[in-house]
Structure formats: structure tokens, C-alpha cells
Write a structure and sequence with these properties.
By secondary structure, the protein is mainly alpha-helical. The chain has 2 domains: 31 residues, no CATH class; 130 residues, Globin-like (Orthogonal Bundle), CATH 1.10.490.20. It is built from 9 helices and no strands. Helix 3 packs antiparallel against helix 5, helix 3 packs across helix 9 and helix 5 packs antiparallel against helix 6.
Length: 164
């Protein structure tokens, strides 16, 4: 779940103390704690703005999604779509804080294709949704913070692309 936990478990599984390199990795992770919290705070405090902008970008690019017969047509379907945007943003935030993609994988990607296919939601649309979510989020972060957050969005996008 976090770099520190993973390194400790790895050393424990091998019945040894963490190596110098592992301790350096832990120290580097811990020294970035303030930055990870700052990123999480920006994403959390701007959730509604990010989700709204993501939806605007997606529906401008894919107006058929909100047209009659589209997956986001009608108040209920659109609300469900926006709920998913928010849920994935939260998963990315967890990843940033933990310094790990484990929960994004376990909670957000395992079974995503089956779930969305059963609901009739095209995975290509979800991939584009996550690209819009990334764009709307990173614009709110400074360059250094965006560089830290970006790989978590990329992991999510890549995982969904593999599901297409």
C-alpha cells in the first residue's frame, strides 16, 4: 500500500533488515510527504471543479455520450458518470499519498472491463474520461506537483487501455 510498507514486508519475507538502498528509498519517500499531502489537498478541495471540467471536456469531445441513447444521457446516467469520475480521482489521490499504484490496480482496474461492459459503457470512453480527469487535475497543480501526480493518472489510463 505504501513504499515503506512494501519495502519492510519485502525485507521481512526474506528474514533480513532493510538494505541501505531500501532505507534510502524510504527516506526519499518520507521526505516527500509534505508534497504528497499538498497534492492530495489540491485534488480533494477541487474535486467538484475537476469533475465538472473533466465532464465538460469529455462531452465536448464526445457529444454522442450525452445525446439521446448515449451512456450519459439523462440526469441519472450523467450523475453516475460524474460519480465514477470522482471515485477515480479519489483513487489517484490515494496512490499519490501512498506512493503506490496498488490500490488503483486492486480497486479501480481489476474487473473494470467486466463491470463497464456489463453496463454497456465503452471502455474507450472511460479511457478518454480518465484523460480528461488528468488534464483537469494537473492544470491545478504546479509543475513539480503535476510531475508527481501524473504517473498515477497514467497508470490508471494505461490499465483501462489494456481493458479495451
Amino acid at each position: 500500500m505504501s513504499v515503506v510498507r512494501d519495502l519492510i514486508l519485502q525485507a521481512d519475507d526474506q528474514l533480513r533488515y532493510p538494505s541501505g538502498g531500501e532505507l534510502s528509498s524510504m527516506a526519499q519517500f518520507l521526505s516527500g510527504g509534505t508534497q504528497r499531502i499538498r497534492i492530495a489537498r489540491v485534488l480533494t478541495e477541487n474535486e467538484k471543479k475537476i469533475v465538472s471540467e473533466s465532464a465538460r471536456q469529455l462531452f465536448q469531445l464526445k457529444p454522442d455520450y450525452v445525446a439521446q441513447g448515449g451512456n450519459a444521457y439523462g440526469q441519472r446516467q450523467r450523475a453516475q458518470c460524474l460519480r465514477d469520475f470522482s471515485w477515480y480521482l479519489r483513487l489517484v489521490t490515494y496512490g499519490v499519498m501512498a506512493g503506490s499504484t496498488e490500490k488503483i490496480q486492486e480497486i479501480g482496474l481489476v474487473g473494470a472491463r467486466e463491470m463497464y461492459n456489463s453496463l454497456g459503457v465503452p471502455m474507450a470512453g472511460m479511457v478518454q474520461s480518465m484523460r480528461s480527469l488528468k488534464a483537469a487535475s494537473l492544470v491545478l497543480l504546479g509543475t513539480e506537483d503535476a510531475a508527481v501526480a501524473s504517473p498515477y493518472f497514467d497508470f490508471l489510463i494505461q490499465g483501462m487501455q489494456t481493458s479495451v
